[in-house]
Design goal:
heterodimer; A: 123 residues; alpha+beta; globular; B: 154 residues; PH-domain like; 2 domains; four-stranded antiparallel sheet; four-stranded mixed sheet; 4 helices
Chain lengths: 123, 154
């Protein structure tokens, strides 16, 4: 892994969690670090990725879920796909029924950091 | 995706590998080809000196520490300010230790700032100034992100 890869992956995961409208705070940064380190792990393959669906993030490696994190504070009803370098909305029904990835891009996503309340930081 | 967040860059001699920009890789490859072609055509020792150009371009890649609004990047290490639970600052030793909730730790060391002066008496002063500036920035951002983080001055 090169430092530039880590920087790129950190930015991709940051946008991924921004798209879920997760406010910044200890709960988010713990999850964010876990996801970044999972993606940059030397054991990862190029096709390994994260999927957000129905308030949960699944880590897919070699087509199988190897880790699962519930994100009850997420405020997005779409299904997202995120690799170490790219992020995209995917077609939810196609993924859940046929396990196929139909990329829709990032056009309808808000990728900026949600406004953080003081309550979230002190939690 | 949106633009990269604004990072403050510091030259820092971390022990991990370096990442070379596409421009540097292109320049190194092109200058190597020119140097080899020139050496082959002229067949002189002078032409062989040209081989030093790609070598210098390859080896002179800067090692950096990047401080962003939410995390810092140093080589293969990423530290989220919100995950820091304890900071131990040792001004005498020139070290700032950041301990995270995951159990990992990152140590910022004064000795890893590069030499920017030739005089020995100014060297420590320059490194100390940079260490203090970076430490203050990191401590401020950790406090802003994690209200429970403790700062201990050793």
């Amino acid at each position: 892994m090169h430092p530039q890869d880590l920087q790129h992956t950190a930015r991709t995961v940051e946008c991924f969690l921004n798209a879920l409208r997760l406010e910044d705070g200890p709960a988010r940064t713990e999850l964010e670090e876990t996801l970044v380190l999972w993606l940059v792990d030397t054991a990862r393959l190029e096709d390994d990725h994260l999927i957000y669906e129905a308030c949960a993030i699944s880590c897919y490696s070699r087509g199988h879920v190897t880790a699962y994190y519930e994100v009850p504070l997420a405020r997005l009803e779409k299904t997202l796909w995120c690799s170490a370098r790219k992020l995209s909305e995917i077609d939810g029904p196609t993924f859940s029924q046929h396990a196929q990835l139909v990329m829709r891009g990032t056009g309808g996503l808000v990728l900026t950091l949600p406004k953080t309340s003081n309550k979230a930081i002190k939690a | 995706m949106t633009r990269q967040p604004a990072f403050t860059r510091f030259s820092y001699q971390h022990a991990d590998g370096v990442s070379r920009s596409p421009l540097r890789i292109w320049f190194t490859g092109t200058s190597l080809l020119i140097a080899m072609a020139t050496t082959a055509v002229l067949a002189s020792a002078f032409a062989a000196v040209l081989l030093a150009v790609p070598l210098m371009a390859w080896l002179a890649t800067p090692r950096q520490l990047l401080v962003g609004p939410r995390y810092l990047l140093c080589g293969n290490t990423i530290v989220y300010f919100g995950n820091v639970k304890r900071m131990t600052l040792s001004p005498a030793l020139g070290k700032l230790r950041l301990e995270c909730t995951s159990g990992t730790a990152f140590v910022l060391e004064r000795r890893r700032f590069p030499r920017s002066t030739r005089t020995a008496e100014n060297l420590l002063k320059h490194k100390t100034n940079r260490f203090e500036r970076l430490s203050a920035m990191v401590i401020e951002r950790v406090h802003a992100a994690s209200a429970n983080a403790v700062l201990i001055t050793a």
